[in-house]
Amino acid sequence: MPDAVAALALIWMLVLPLAGEPVAYESVATPVSAAPADDVTVELDAEQIELMAGDPDWRASARLYHAGGGGATGNDSLGCRPIPMRTVAVDPRVIPRRTRLFIRETVGLRLADGTLHDGYWYASDTGGAIKGDKIDLFTGTGRGSMQPAMGLNMRTLSISEAGRFDGCPPSWASASN
Q1: How far is residue 144's CA from residue 93's CA, in Å, rounded to a whole number?
Q2: Measured distance CA(80)–CA(75) in Å, rounded
Q3: Distance from the first to the final alpha carbon of the chain
């Protein structure tokens, strides 16, 4: 009887892989580019051209965060509502809060509504895990909001100071570069 059980277990293992077996990331990941598609033309203004050409002020490893499901909730560290694809959490000892940032890797990034990102972000949040040369990019509500920016996750980004801002980061509708 033990031989029959062992044979049945062997057959079962061959037919059905173990649920706990690791699966290679490459076999399930869908590559996402954070760069604009080849058919996208992004018109830059003089400030953007200058920021693209200059040396970055910081290089920081990016992470993505979202509201809901254990992500961000409530207001940012300035007391403002986070603005999707605009709010950045920083270590204020490295990048001062209230700094208007230009992240060149996000220029031309196609957002969920079809618009293209202009590269401007606002350092208005902090976080316990944001230490040193790390930033968190706020993507919106729910894990699905992270999809347009997935190609930026865990990448080192080139960040330039594009000035300062007062109050809260502007919404997309009212943002002026």
Answers
A1: 31
A2: 5
A3: 78
